[in-house]
Design goal:
about 260 residues, alpha+beta, three-stranded antiparallel sheet
Length: about 260
């Protein structure tokens, strides 16, 4: 059987995975804080017919060898953590990170999740929570009777609010951000959340605006970093590559048909 059938089939499988990744990127083009995914591919094992450097004569060596590849496979998918565009929302619960860092939220099982989605809300207890009710960590609890429209968050993460009868705002707390040695190694778990893995390394806490951390922008949201035009170009390339691999299978099939028809 011609090895090109299986080689081209691996190419079609790889391009199908590529299209799946592109489709996920495009579907999340309006997802707050979403980071696009990029698939990485690698070639498979090679069949070596002749090794390079094989003696040709007593005095000469073969300069190059003869190898035949067996196709392609997906090596990895990684999130590209480039900055997304910032949108002014005028919503007191929205916080964007300009630069490096993640917000930390406490999940229902007690573990932590990390996110760039700063679309927080204030619940009935006066706490900052995300859309699924996960609390922002460290806890930010508004004092009783606070005036909602006076909440202010500085670029270094200081949270203040005004109370009735007081002219000066009162301190509520200090935001913390977390960064990682290898953010691409974080495990995506859905709900705009990432989880620490052995590849990402331990979270490094810090104050916004200091020690390499990004700044916090109040009443802004970071949008997805998906570039629609680039994703459409990638889709066209993947579609044509898929088509060419299918042509290779058809050609191999025709060649096998010709070989099978030699004896009549």
């Amino acid at each position: 059987m011609m090895r090109s059938l299986h080689t081209a089939a691996s190419g079609m499988i790889g391009q199908q995975f590529n299209i799946d990744t592109i489709a996920n990127n495009l579907s999340n083009v309006n997802t707050t804080g979403f980071k696009k995914n990029r698939p990485d591919f690698e070639d498979l094992l090679y069949h070596t017919v002749r090794m390079a450097g094989t003696p040709a004569t007593e005095e000469t060596l073969v300069p190059v060898g003869v190898q035949v590849g067996h196709g392609v496979r997906v090596a990895a998918t990684q999130k590209i953590h480039t900055q997304g565009s910032l949108q002014n929302t005028q919503n007191v619960g929205d916080i964007a990170i300009q630069g490096e860092g993640f917000f930390r939220v406490r999940l229902y099982d007690g573990s932590f999740g990390y996110t760039r989605d700063g679309s927080f809300k204030i619940d009935s207890n006066g706490q900052f929570v995300n859309s699924n009710g996960y609390r922002l960590m460290p806890d930010l609890v508004m004092p009783e009777g606070f005036i909602r429209d006076t909440i202010a968050i500085s670029q270094d993460g200081r949270v203040t609010v005004k109370l009735p009868g007081l002219d000066d705002p009162v301190d509520v707390g200090q935001l913390e951000l977390y960064r990682f040695v290898n953010p691409a190694g974080l495990q995506a778990i859905g709900d705009n959340l990432l989880r620490v893995s052995a590849a990402s390394g331990d979270p490094i806490p810090g104050q916004p605006g200091f020690d390499g951390m990004g700044q916090t922008l109040h009443k802004f949201l970071e949008m997805s970093n998906v570039e629609i035009v680039q994703e459409m170009v990638n889709m066209i390339v993947a579609q044509r590559a898929y088509e060419m691999n299918s042509k290779a299978i058809q050609t191999s099939d025709n060649m096998l048909g010709i070989a099978a028809g030699l004896k009549r």
